[in-house]
Design brief:
Layout lengths: L1 E8 L15 H11 L3 E6 L5 E7 L3 H9 L2 H4 L3 E8 L16
Antiparallel strand pairs: 1-3, 1-4, 2-3
């Protein structure tokens, strides 16, 4: 199952500074350490309003503890919402046929 998540600015985000000046290296390192090979994509939005992730996981519950203990979440630099995701068409789809006609 794929899990897609959206990060948005939290209470501790410093307005007027890009993501590169928000002290987010521990956030990035944490995600790489805990998700490793299950990372499909992670990256910031170009307008510095947050970011997106896509992970492969057995279930959404298995990643929630990791997501909510992310340093950027604990420090309130980001808020996060996540959802199970079923890509039907495109590069993230493992199947050739889609589920509807």
């Amino acid at each position: 199952m794929k899990i897609v998540g959206l990060y948005t600015r939290g209470k501790s985000w410093i307005e007027g500074k890009p993501h590169t000046e928000q002290g987010l290296v521990p956030h990035r390192d944490y995600l790489v350490e805990h998700f490793g090979d299950s990372i499909i994509a992670i990256g910031p939005f170009m307008n510095h309003t947050g970011g997106l992730f896509i992970f492969e996981a057995e279930s959404i519950e298995k990643i929630e503890d990791i997501i909510f203990n992310d340093p950027a979440i604990l420090e309130e630099k980001f808020e996060v919402k996540h959802y199970p995701w079923e890509p039907l068409i495109g590069i993230f789809n493992q199947q050739i046929e889609y589920a509807y006609n």
